[in-house]
Amino acid sequence: MQLWEHYVVLYKSLSPTMEAHISLPELSVILSCTERNVKLLMRGMREQGWIVWSPGRGRGRRSVLKLLADPDKLLADQAAARLEAGQWSSLSSLLRQGKFAALGQAPLLRLLEQSLQTYTYSKGDADVLRFPTYRIVGGLDPAYVTRRTELHMVRQLFDTLVKYRRETGEFEAQLAHHWIPGERRWSFYLQKRVRFHDGTIMTSKDVAGTLLRLRETGPYKDLFRCIRGVDMHGDYCISIDLHEPVPGLLSLLASTAASIVPANREQDYGDMPIGTGPFRLSDRNERLLALEAHPDYFLRPAHLDQVEMWCFPELYDLRQQSRSEPLEEMNFQHYRHTERQEPWQEVERTDRGCKYIVLNQRKAGPLQRNSERKKLVICLTEEDIAFEAGGNRGPRARRLISEFDHDAEEKCPESPDEAPLPNEAIHLTAAIYFGGSHEADAEWLQEKLKARGIRLSIRLVPFEELTSDATLAWADLLLLELPVDEDAEWTLQVHLMSPAALLQRVLSDAMKVQLQQLLAPVRSEPSREKRLDALLAGEGLLLRTNILLPWYRWRQSASFPKELEGVRISSFGWVDYKELWFRS
Fold this sequence. Notes:
Helix content is 32%, strand content 21%. It has 20 helices and 22 strands. It is globular, with a radius of gyration of 29 Å.
């Protein structure tokens, strides 16, 4: 233990008197050291000005000890010294030590907040972007990633054969520089000399292995089972054979799921993935996820040298306890700071995705009936949560994806009411997961339904278990967040067409058949516009039967120092680090 840690032990033992008549043997017990070391510690604390120490004269005489230093200040001083030295991991150990819980972590957390306002710090000539988050990033194997933050990280670490550009509505070359479409056989010609992060060259073997694996594993496998096989023609050409014509194949190949991974992977690949993207994962632990620029990136390399995401859930907890500010998830700065040394710039945009609620039609209870689901939907949409609950909550969502909001009424005619049930007390259970303001949203739901005589119980489950069979056995409704990739067609296919998708698994058998009939043309339809129409028709069925409730959209924002350029919020609500650079 360091000297200041011994002082904290004394403070906790003698508080609140702050002054004591005490013997050396008693101090020896408190400090868990010999009487000789006690004398050394007292001398050191007195030299620091932390105590007044008047040792007793003679055997058995008691000494006078007066405590002068504020332990919170000592803690803050230690934190400041470690921050200045760049010892962030050491700082996190201070937060883990239970001995500080009684003193309160607020001063340390305030200091941490202020430090996190500085985006770049000196590491030679390196440009380093650093920001906090409330949770550590999960697994990053593209075949399994479904959550917004992880999807964003996949885009930083990996590349796909082709890339969809929403501004033009076209697919562009990426790892494949040319392709030849066909009815049941497509050919792709690969970029040469593309290196993975470990220095190995990407070849057709890696591409074929990626696509064949997608048919067999992960939440997207049903969408990729249209692939019958992959032939390799040397190191830089492949042919994809299909069971049937799939005109929309490029949507699948441009998705995060189809990010190209090495054919040879380690057992911990999800924790320490290797891709070909503009950044590579350089460090990862319980507090830190660090990316560094890929020096051999085959396209224009990144301007930033390093990106550091620091996980401090204590900041999130502090905000939640005080409720002094909305719990907002922001790019870079995931906690809005109240004080800054100088003004920062801020950009905003409305999320293309939404918070949405799914009503479980399969669970026995009142929500098996459309009339009861309709009452619930009306109750939750008659007032504006953005106005009532504030924070980053934005406009009401009418469709899952914002660009289709305008035709919600046209394509979702109201269904006829069923005969109402007798009035009776209704008790429902909602499943939510931690973070992203879900807790505050659930409380709003609870109060809103309570006013209508509906008792709503909230159960918090890990994200990985949210849509498990076990959860669907007891959950009447589920609160989720929809991340939207650049390609809306891919996003709608993921959530509507896969048998593993939540929106299929909550349906009765009869409703599932209706949905599949509406979605049947999607695979074989040559026109992208008509494929989207079929997907929207399927979504419309779930809307008008009140199984799906798109709720509201985030007002996403990014705060950043004026020296940082290239800030643009992506479809996932984050910022692509490859586009960032410091003017200074």
